[in-house]
Amino acid sequence: MYTGIKTFNRKRENEVLEPVSVSLEKEKHRSFFGIRVSAIVETLIFITLTLILDYLFGTGDRFQSINPHPFWIIVLIVTVQYGTVEGVVASVLCTTALYAGNVPDMQFNESLFQYNARLALNPTLWFVAALVIGEMHMRVISERDKFKEIAIVADRDAREVTDAYQMLKEKKEHLEVRLVSQIRSFSFSIKALQNMESMSSAQIMMSLIDMIREIVGPKKFSVYTFSEMGFEVMLSEGWEGENFQRRFPNQHPLYREIVSRKRLISVVNPEDEVVLEGEGLIAAPIIDRDSGTIFGMLKIEDIEFYDLNISNLWVIESLAELVGSAFLNAQKYDQLTKATIFASSQEGVYSYPFYRMQKPLLSKVLGESNNPFTELDVIFDTDQDVMKKIRPDVEYFLSRDLPAAASIYQMGRDELHYVILLPNYSLKKAQELNQEYNKILGQEDKLKDCKWTIEARNVKYAQADYKS
């Protein structure tokens, strides 16, 4: 805002000073042998008017009998206004106008010396006044110009100091904003890194997107998934009105460079600019460095110029590698959970893969013996932070009063969703157990801020015929 006001004021100042400087420059060039034409014109006009007045109302002697002579007016005015040279010229013109064709006769009672002195008195005084007053005027002008030059230099120095101060102030404010942003980003990064502990690929990807927004702060960016056929865009932000490629086939230079060399690509390097082909400023592989497995690509299409620095390039590359390692861990966890029986350290809480094997077997056995088979579907509605805190308590409360022959199964890694299988339980008994669980959970202080739903339903043999 300050910069805009400063520019506006300078513009107005230039608009005011420019006509003056132009007029002075024109006036400077309107001279005749170094004598300003305006001084000559003013003198001639005054002399002409004076002689007309003498002809109409005077005696016709061009005011020789009047003391002081009217020509003193123009001599003094021109001298004070323009200086010595113009004053002398005015004196010459006045002398010429006074005596040209109008030289008085010598009187009988005066000598030749007295006669010449009488003729030379006014011209001499005019020339002396022009020289003395003109030189005094020129001295004043010289002093004024000297102080004006000093004032201009001081004003220029003051402007430079003001501009330097304003620049320093803007840099300070910018650094303050960056510092606050970095502190906020640091605290956010810790929180986002905690979310990356999740074994859910979707949760990991959302953590990456949040960290890119907060830490890097690009205007436009996108995340691509990897396959042998190419990169496919999974998420894009800020692409409104843009035509960036949504797919990079395996023949594209960007795909080949990312997959073969497994490195960050940036327009800072001229050879990388050719690879990007105008599709962005930065591209980094989402990769696990230890195994070399690529999971996708992070691409920055637009970012502030001052953010395009080596520090941010390092941050982008590190984030992509961190997410790649988290993806690999999530894959390993998926493989382990497929073969595990227990889903929790809490005794008696089984995994979802074991649920898919156990339920059809129990359903078949109980169906053949014509015994009832029901289940309770328990879902807690809460956010991720609260879920991590209360998960052990929820599993403890559900398994603590678990009926005989019943079993509890965890249905999701990143949600509080459980199913309790109740062999030989009718729907009525399952509904009574539902009420007991609601009562038990409602009495616990640790769960008072949570919402949950428990649904009792029959398990039919035909509906439970799953493949493991």
CATH top level of the largest domain? Alpha Beta
> How far is the N terminus from the C terminus?
68 Å
Q: If you consult CATH, what is the topology of the largest domain?
A: Beta-Lactamase
Number of domains: 3
Tally of strands: 13
- Average of the residue pLDDT scores: 81
Question: Helix-strand pattern, N to C?
Answer: HEEHHHHHEEEHEHEEHEHEHEEHE
CATH architecture of the largest domain: 2-Layer Sandwich
Q: How many helix segments?
A: 12
- Beta-strand content estimate: 15-25%
User: CATH superfamily membership of the largest domain, which one?
Assistant: GAF domain
* Global Rg: 50 Å
Query: What shape does the CA trace take?
Result: rod-shaped
Q: pLDDT under 50 segments (min length 5)? A: 1-27, 462-468
Order of neighbouring strands in the sheet with most strands = 5-4-3-8-7-6
The helix-and-strand class reads alpha+beta
Helical residues, percent: 55-70%
Question: Layout of helices and strands, plus pairs?
Answer:
Layout: H1 2-29, E1 31-32, E2 35-36, H2 37-57, H3 71-82, H4 84-99, H5 112-195, H6 201-216, E3 220-227, E4 230-237, E5 247-249, H7 253-261, E6 265-266, H8 270-276, E7 282-288, E8 293-302, H9 310-339, E9 349-350, H10 352-368, E10 373-381, H11 384-400, E11 407-410, E12 416-423, H12 427-442, E13 451-458
Parallel strand pairs: 9-11
Antiparallel strand pairs: 1-2, 3-4, 3-8, 4-5, 6-7, 7-8, 10-12, 10-13, 11-12
Helix pairs in contact: 2-3, 2-4, 3-4, 3-5, 4-5, 5-6, 6-9
